[in-house]
């Protein structure tokens, strides 16, 4: 039995889902293939993901392959109540998601999804897998394998492996080339700035934007911020990534040096306290704080609360203004949660088309391959990543070259000299 806010919203949800589906040609092709081949017949899937129109496309694809799906939200601020209603009322999924639900309700929904005794689990941040291994070990016996689609979640999974805690194989869908390139770089780059602009209506041209982290998400953000006329400062802990940023012409500084000069701060690191009390204490009046890392720990919101003498909630939608003792005002977006999903609509459907295509094909592969996999973090098979890229190129009417037999022989021979 689903737990959603309002079943009468289903009609609006269906319209939104169908609109997004127009921009997801790869997932549509896979859905048609799944409907014919039924690779997931009888498989129970539990997912903890953002309840958005794009996620609905993945859920419908898994169902077309024969799976029964229970979906819990991975972020209450990103949940679309109309999409949840449509999935539950029109598409036959079990949905446990309400926009804005509190922490206790959030975990109660994860428990409800797990109580379906899933064969496969799909996670977005590792909260579902974490709950399985801490509070619901009684359900571990049915789980054969899982997928994780965030950097933060993969980091947590590797920590579990190091401690010998992970009990089943998990595929790091996040780490595929198509996911990094399309989702993290192009999706996060565009949708994060979209969320900031919607929440603040600020002009980014001429602003100093400080981006914490120069992984794929940080690179995409930096490229797009520079394209909009911003001065971009990168903070990093990895010398290789810092060097990459510097050679691309970005200013690279420690956060302590950047903090007094930034107009907008964006965190995309997967770590905590990246913006801390010391940084907040020297920021200029009106500085905007936004996070696009998975969890709301990258900006020390508790420190900000403690420093503020007054808080103006909702000065704009998803924007809270913190007034400090010296009169400076700092603006926190989306409560420090994912600004691109809370203040905007997340990645465009065309981006999630590839990420969820990777996810769907990996699920079908895991349905039979799980028995040969150890309880560890595994890569998506290269052929799946390549197939998704080929389908995407075909949908864009883009053709590429094919190796000739002689070229194939040359690449696979060590005997041919110069």
TrEMBL record:
SMART domains for the chain: AdoHcyase, AdoHcyase_NAD
Cofactor(s), by name: NAD(+)
Keywords: Cytoplasm, Hydrolase, NAD, One-carbon metabolism
Residues annotated for NAD(+) binding in this entry: 150-152, 184, 213-218, 236, 271, 292-294, 340
Pfam families: AdoHcyase, AdoHcyase_NAD
Keyword match Heme: no
Residue stretches making up the S-adenosyl-L-homocysteine hydrolase NAD binding domain: 184-346
Enzyme class: hydrolase
Name of protein: Adenosylhomocysteinase
